[in-house]
Design brief:
With 155 residues, the protein is α+β, with helices and mostly antiparallel strands. The chain has six helices and seven strands, in the order βααβαββββααβα. Strands 1, 2, 3, 4, 5, 6 and 7 form a seven-stranded mixed β-sheet that branches. The protein is globular. The two termini are 25 Å apart. It binds a DNA duplex (12 and 12 nucleotides) through loops.
Length: 155
DNA sequence: GCCAACGTTGGC
DNA sequence: GCCAACGTTGGC
């Protein structure tokens, strides 16, 4: 039984379109530098899980589409790369601090489902998205997943 | 661009 | 280990 997640990104950096345009629709989800998000990514996200791609810090924040996790968690290579903005001097190969997974594009919603709209839906008022800001990897319940999928498909 | 919320850093 | 200062996120 796959678990459900919501991954936040800024569409100017790496949004649903960039994912869809990646080779085979697949790309690493890296650069996560928040401990709580890291813990989810390292300890709970698993191959086969399903993910909402959420666009933040943009004109209309909201859920843009879906992706599937196609790898187990692995040490984020950018933490070792001095030229990367995600370089972390304290991370070592023996003791990596940050993790990534690969994800594969599955769908772009016919329209972006805005956070404003979702906030009004009774089934979603307790979503982590609305209870805790600044968390770029967060769990989504089965009910929340199905509710958002139904809204995205026009029901 | 503003600014509230909140995570992180660093002096003590 | 406290907590003030600082930096970042993210909606508006």
């Amino acid at each position: 039984m796959p678990a459900f997640w919501l991954f936040k990104s800024e569409p100017d950096e790496f949004g649903i379109d960039a994912l869809a345009a990646s080779p085979r629709g697949q790309a690493p989800w890296d650069g996560i530098r928040n401990y709580q998000a890291r813990n989810y990514l390292r300890d709970e996200v698993a191959e086969g899980d399903l993910v909402f791609i959420y666009h933040s810090a943009c004109a209309t924040p909201g859920v843009a589409g879906t992706a599937k996790v196609t790898s187990s968690p692995y040490p984020d290579p950018s933490q070792f790369d001095e030229n990367s903005p995600y370089f972390d001097v304290k991370a070592t190969a023996d003791n990596p601090k940050w993790f990534a997974v690969d994800i594969k594009f599955t769908a772009r919603f016919p329209r972006l489902v805005s956070a404003k709209e979702l906030r009004k839906v009774p089934e979603l008022t307790n979503m982590t998205l609305f209870r805790q800001g600044r968390l770029s990897v967060q769990p989504v319940s089965t009910v929340e997943w199905e509710t958002i999928m139904a809204i995205a498909s026009g029901k």
